[in-house]
Amino acid sequence: MKASNVINGTYGRVWVDGELWAEVDSFEAKVTVTYEDVNFAGDGATHKKGTGWTGEGSMTIKKIYSRVQRAMADNVRKGMYPRLEIVGKVQDPDAFGAERVALHDVTVNEFMLMKFEQKTIGNEEIPFAFSDYEMIDTIAPQ
Asked: d(Cα 94, Cα 3) in Å, to the nearest integer?
């Protein structure tokens, strides 16, 4: 192993509904598995039975456009809650390959109507949830 093979997030990209969002600073999507405890007579251990999962994530973007507000603000006021498709990819040319995931049925949990602070570059955090995903590319040992 060499340090140069560690993925550098600078090469990460995000597409939302097929549109590249080049202003994304950070991106995270994770799955949390839900378990219930299972106990058996004569066994002191507590075993686990998987009962489902939850997909959640967030991204932080530089404030350049009103992307999220355009997609969400008017619709939410009308009682409509848009569903998005997000693809995240990181491909460092010095590493062993690319990692890419597609998130389906993405719902935005909250969005900022407006935020600013003097002498501070604008950004916004976008937390989201998803109910399906697909690992398109993974990095395997060489």
From this structure: 10
Specify if 40 maps to a domain.
no
Structure tokens at 77: 């006021």
In a domain, 112, yes or no: yes
* Distance from C-alpha of 100 to C-alpha of 10, rounded to nearest angstrom: 15
Q: pTM score, two decimals?
A: 0.90
| Contact between residue 88 and residue 24 where contact means Cβ atoms under 8 Å apart | no
Measure Cα distances from 67 to 8, 31, 50, 117 in Å. 26, 25, 37, 20
Q: Name the band, by pLDDT with cuts 50, 70 and 90, for residue 140.
A: confident
The pLDDT value given to residue 1: 82
3-state secondary structure of 74: helix
